[in-house]
Write a structure and sequence with these properties.
about 210 residues; 3-stranded antiparallel β-sheet
């Protein structure tokens, strides 16, 4: 009889261990609230942009390697995956803890091996991608640029980026807007509700 009990408890232990393991894989971390800083007086530079750009809750120094995005991010080889042998770039969907929420472009790719080690040309976060792949849209997006993230308002963008944007009702309204340094730009796209609907962190390519 003792043997049976022992087996039961070890089975329970292993089940508990499995549950803990699954939990850690599937649950994104609690992301910190990011307090915006005042817009730099001399305008934005690579350094000041990097200083306020958080991916996965930590500051990112762009351009960076895919693996620098941190835990939970994965390159997905689905129908949209593309290696361009001429430009040596890869276009791919990106999942975060199993949900596709971004796309990226990587440079210096001779083939499709070791893509995590490659440098990002850009990463674009977009709710539309989640819809397209019928993933859940996260409650909190793992991207934050000086307090601006997916769903942020036009007011937040103007205030936190130091821009005058107009609104969707204006003739001169531009859906695509950016702040940029020499090599790094943050491109954000506003939807009809004047909310951020796409957010790119991008390495400006030298012509």
């Amino acid at each position: 009889g003792c043997g049976d009990v022992k087996d039961d408890s070890s089975a329970a232990d292993s089940t508990a261990a499995a549950a803990v393991k699954t939990e850690s894989v599937e649950t994104p971390p609690e992301l910190p609230e990011i307090e915006p800083v005042p817009v730099p007086e001399g305008g934005w530079t690579d350094e000041t942009i990097n200083d306020v750009t958080y991916i996965n809750g930590k500051k990112i120094n762009f351009p960076c390697k895919f693996k620098d995005l941190g835990e939970g991010f994965e390159i997905i080889k689905n129908d949209d995956f593309e290696l361009n042998k001429k430009t040596k770039t890869v276009l791919a969907a990106v999942s975060y803890y199993g949900e596709i929420i971004a796309s990226c472009k990587l440079r210096d790719c001779e083939d499709t091996n070791n893509l995590e080690e490659k440098e990002l040309i850009y990463i674009c976060f977009a709710p539309g991608l989640a819809d397209e792949y019928s993933s859940d849209v996260p409650d909190k997006w793992p991207i934050n640029v000086n307090g601006v993230t997916i769903g942020s308002s036009l007011d937040d963008c103007e205030k936190n980026f130091g821009l005058e944007l107009g609104s969707f009702d204006d003739d001169d309204f531009n859906r695509f807007n950016d702040i940029r340094g020499e090599e790094v730009q943050i491109l954000f796209v506003l939807d009809e509700d004047n909310g951020v609907d796409r957010l790119y962190v991008e390495n400006i390519e030298k012509e």
